[in-house]
Amino acid sequence: MEQRPNYITPAGYAALRGEYEQLFGVERPALVETIAWAAGNGDRSENGDYIYGRKRLREIDRRLGWLSKRMKAAKVVDPAQAQDRDRVWFGATVTIADEDDAERVLTMVGDDEAEAGAGRVGWSAPIARALRGSTIGDLRRVTLPSGEKEYEVIAIAYPAG
Question: Which of 88, 125, 127, 142 has its CB surrounded by the most CB atoms within 10 Å?
């Protein structure tokens, strides 16, 4: 099965990299030191520092593995370099309006940097898939968990390049 590219903005990639470096270079070494200290205190079966430390170390190692895979699969795309600025593509900030003229502003970003509350929608989200390639004035129908909605594209913007 062919895997889709993991598109991500330069800022999103920098955030993943920063988290990786923080976990690997700061948190993990400090935790290993704490575990070593706790192990030297004797009985490990009732040693909270040791038990919690081992559990947290497994969580950090799991997260480091996930971050490593995501960064290797990442295809960094700078939206400021977009060629076709008249259509909605990766990195576009889109203003849409629903049937009740309620407007929303969404930015199409990588799935790893999506945050719906901040208006950043993952590239593979249903609304992002529906808006791909649309131009100002286009109507797009989206099937959401709350039902089907129709949106009109009001404005499209890209970061300055």
Answer: 88
Taking the model in full, what pTM does it have?
0.81
Mention every residue, 6+ apart, whose C-beta is less than 8 A from residue 85. Answer: 156, 158
Q: What is the pLDDT of residues 25-69, one digit of tens each?
A: 999 999 999 999 888 887 777 788 888 999 999 999 999 999 999
Measured between alpha carbons, how far is 11 from 8 in angstroms, rounded to an integer?
Answer: 8
Q: d(Cα 37, Cα 122) in Å, to the nearest integer?
A: 43
Torsion of CA 59, 64, 65, 67, to 10 degrees: 120
Beta bridge partners of 76: 8
Q: What is the dihedral of CA 83, 89, 94, 96, to 10 degrees?
A: 130
Tell me the residue ranges of DSSP E strands in the chain: 6-8, 74-76, 93-97, 103-109, 120-122, 139-144, 147-157
Residue 114 phi, psi (nearest 5): -65, 140
Quick: pLDDT tens for 68-86: 999 999 999 999 888 889 9
